[in-house]
Write a structure and sequence with these properties.
single chain; alpha/beta; globular; binds guanosine-5'-monophosphate
Length: 178
Amino acid sequence: MLEDIDRVLLTEEEIKERVAELGAEISRDYAGKDLVLICILKGALHFMADLSRHISIPVDMDFMAISSYGASTKSSGEVRILQDLDAPIANRHVLIVEDIVDSGLTLKYLVDNLSSRRPASLKIATLLDKPARRVVPITTDYNGFQIPDEFVVGYGLDYAEKYRNLPFIGILKPEVYK
Ligand code: 5GP
């Protein structure tokens, strides 16, 4: 698996530190509020698990699975819900926990979809942001790292379902997907 990685972009230690900072910020901002974290599967699994352990206020967690790129590295813009939330979010404070914002199409769909369920508020936490490739404007509220326009894997992010279990975020060698 390591031989497919060109270089490490974010080390395990850097991710850990930043996720702890985001958790502290979220704990302050939502103190006294009824907060639901919505993990977007599968990519945000590791981020959700670590972020939630750095949030010191009570939270509910729910999960939504959506279709991703499959074995491609570009977003089609077509998003499909594979698994919906267990519970309604009306009148609750909702924080979407996402792995990466690239074109922004996935989050645009999610924001439209979840807004229609009338939450008290709706915000976005993303571990990674690739602003260079944005197609639709998306404002994230909690942002781990801005990264260059490279295809990354690890810490939940896959290529064709592989590499999610790498503890760091690395740039995949282009010959692996070309
Ligand atoms: P968007 O709709 O913003 O273009 O893409 C969002 C989704 O595409 C992310 O949730 C993620 O699953 C996938 N994605 C975007 N960029 C990357 C990347 O560099 N590496 C991986 N593994 N997935 C990505």
